[in-house]
Amino acid sequence: MKELKRRNKLLLLWLAGMLFSVQAFAQSITVNGVVKDNLGEPVIGASVLIKGTTTGTITDFDGNFTLQANQGDIIAISFIGYKTQELPAAANMNVILKDDSELLEEVVVIGYGQVKKDDATGSVTAIKPDELSKGITTNAQDMLTGKVAGVSVISNDGTPGGGATIRIRGGSSLNASNDPLIVIDGLALDNSGIKGMSNGLSMVNPNDIETFTVLKDASATAIYGSRASNGVIIITTKKGKEGQAPRISYSGSVSVATTQKRYDVLNGDEFREYAHQLWGDALPAELGDANTDWQDQVFRTAVSTEHNVSINGGFKNLPYRISLGFNKNNGIVKTSDFQRFTASVNLAPSFFDDHLKVNVNAKYMNGKNRYAEGIGGAMAMDPTRPVYSDDPMYATVGGYYQNVQATSGFSDPNWNYTTNKNTPGNPLAALEQKDDTANSNDFVGNVEVDYKFHFLPDLRLHASIGGEYAEGTQTTIWSPYSYAYNYYGRDQLSTEYKYNLSYNVYAQYIKEVGNHSIDVMAGGEEQHFHRNGYTEAQGWDSYAGVAQDVQERGQTAYATRNTLVSYFGRLNYSYKNRYLLTFTMRFDGSSRFADGNRWGKFPSLALGWKLKEENFLKDVNFLSDLKLRLGWGITGQQDVTADFAYMPLYIVSDDYAQYPFDNDYYHSSRPNAFNTNLKWEQTTTYNAGLDFGFLNGRIVGNIDGYYRKTDDLLNSVKIPVGTNFNAQMLQNIGSLKNYGMEFSINAKPIVTKDFMWDVTYNFTWNHNEITKLTGGDASNYYVETGNKISPGNNTKVQVNKVGYPANSFYVYQQVYDENGKPIENMFVDRNGDGIINAADKYIYKKPAADFLMGFTSKMTYKNWDFSFALRASLNNYVYYDFLAGKAKTGQSGIFSNTAYSNTTKEAIALGFTGQGDYYMSDYFVRNASFLRCDNITLGYSFQELFKSQAYQGIGGRIYATCQNPFIISKYDGLDPEVQSGIDGSPYPRAVTFLLGLTLQF
Questions:
Q1: Residue 106 pLDDT grade (very low, low, confident, very high; cuts 50, 70, 90)
Q2: 855-875: burial string, b at 16+ Cβ within 10 Å, e else
Q3: φ and ψ of 241, to 5 deg
Q4: Per the CB 3.0–4.6 Å rule, which of 229, 349, 447, 560 could disulfide with 635?
Q5: What is the pLDDT of residues 872-925, one digit of tens each?
Q6: 577 close to 583: Cβ distance less than 8 angstroms
Q7: Higher model confidence: residue 111 or residue 855?
Q8: DSSP 792
Q9: How far apart are alpha carbons 815 and 427 in whole angstroms?
Q10: For residue 900, what are the CA distances in angstroms to 194, 273, 291, 893?
């Protein structure tokens, strides 16, 4: 009996072991499968992953894969543009990936509505800022830099919180605005800034932005009519999602910035040596014994911080998002900084089964700027002088070393010395004895209501009302010890206010009947823009107790306004989802023109052909998209500096044109120049484009060619004396054209289970040319333009002239010696009359680049990411104003008005001594082509930190970024990227190192 029990136990153990072995064998299987799309085509490079593990593979060129798995495992198959499939592991798997309807139905925001990306007929680029490769983005425009073909974004300089110049397909105007229209959450903004705010984009926190949509050709922009000649940038901010639990996000960073490059001026020892070369021991004035690096005195290593918090979610019918942001950006020039606080609220409730939708947006920004000067002084100040001096003669300048002179012209008998304003000033004193601070507040809000009729769901009515109120005050206080306002000092207050109102309503009817799809929209809009401000200032004689040089509010106060009334409509039609047509029409009435010229009409027409949907391309497997676009349209321009330039108005004279009665002087009223014939600028654009995609969307891109012509250009020109009430007047004076090509491509060359490489490249070529100027008939007629240069007396070197690009340089052709060195004030007699005069000047180059390129590379490996962004500009030229201003060397170049001023080795090597119009030479016009690295970023993402059964954990990312690490250029100046074309002594762009953290709770 015992033996039987023993045998039974052995049998049970053997059976259990066999069952365990069979189960173990059954758990390990080889999975062979194929992945196809819903058309039966193989999907190449699809990710095949065992769910919950890191084990996986990708499909080959035939869509096949092989994978070791266990029985019961779940296999997740995914690819871009398709819904992820999760299936039980099996020995043989035949997987069909279905199209992701959300991606197929992806919409882009256009004027007064939206359209499926696949159905867009105009030149429209929509981008979503990439959190992994966006770099440092203080302002919204930073996100567009180098990212969109045809869009040029050039920061004005390195000033904290500074603005940028944005151009879409070059400028379409001469004197009117060339800035694109900015639309934020459906509200068109006034692009102009106020005190403390560089432009309208400054008030948007970049962390609140969901997408940018750039409308470039007239078929896309004409729906905005008179404000869209320079393109449109539509910004959509982030919103909550219906039914989503509250989610809290935080992003913060700390950064350190320093100068990337400095001017190579002489140090103290070099300056003393050069002075002795010029004068020997017979110096005109004693030199100091210091060795001061004045650039060290004004520049610093700056530490900045940024913090952003948002909460978003949604109740049953009420998605919401609330965000707060704070940025403290210290500049690399001492005392300069920018501080911004932002708040944003979005509510999007829906009612009556989503028939009625409401969207409420409110944004607030408070900005504080402290501006700095002294950069130019650091290049000019005598390096042999100390920063401070204990000598009693410098007590009246605050103990700083300054070039002073004796005086007895002040009430205080002890104030015996004052600054010599014809000599360089102490740059550190200029920073510390001047407090130039601006404070601005900006509120933007709008409410949109969209109702889909119950009895006719194809018809919807949309209404919107919104506005902006902004105020800015700049307070500038000069110390009585300052160089500029010694003894009296000066307090100045400049205040600006603006408020804008906008409301529109439109109806839209969308219907599909068989192979036909119709989308009709019509509506109206009214916009009001108001602006006013004033300046008041005075100095103060503290000894006598009286004001000095008073500027009263009543002398400077102004107020202005303008209004736009518009009616618009659009028709979208498609046949078989293959042939597309878009027609728009807008009528605009502007208060800036007289009755006879007040209204303008702006039509557009665009056609699209989805070639991929044709039978002859449907079976071409490697081609995933191919669409041809053709467009034509007219847009307008009325954004000039004067709101009432067509009306005869009287203006109050300034302090230099007062009328005396006895011992009192009174301001007079005088008529202003006016032109009743002013009318719209009109820009006509032709566009042809091709959108393409390969390998299931692994490679996508587009190419566009365009031609734009602007007629009736608005410009301020000189007029014959006596024909009006001024020597200059705003007129419609001519025409210009732009034509060019754009190309952009995005590709994912490598996609594996753990590694992905994503690259984006864009290329732009633009040609700009003035074709007509009506101010003169002579072949040498031109209109001066641009900023003045340092040498000369209010001298300009840029002009507008027929047959040449806008803002071209107008200079003499330099003559060189046998060694290739320029001979001072010797120029080519281009007209051969034996005389060198202004008739020998010629057009030589222009500031705008011929070619622009942008390249972004992003790599991810498991939780790591690495990215960089490059940007190139070719054939852009600048006038090297810094060298021209220093080019006068020798005795009179470094010593005048009893004081020395510094120079550079480059200027000494040039050897000019200030003869004639040496500064009007084409020698100073330099090729400033460059390749700039905008940013390099390395990051690590994490998930489920502190996860527990009750808490899903924290996700986030930690990253390090280097902004503006290097620039490659042959240009000798500080920075080749100069928007105006005149490179003087700008606030330099810094190289910045940043450590950042994002968290999602």
A1: low
A2: bbbbbbeeeebbbbbbbbbee
A3: -120, 140
A4: 229
A5: 999 999 999 999 999 999 999 999 999 999 999 999 999 999 999 999 999 999
A6: no
A7: 855
A8: S
A9: 37
A10: 39, 13, 14, 9
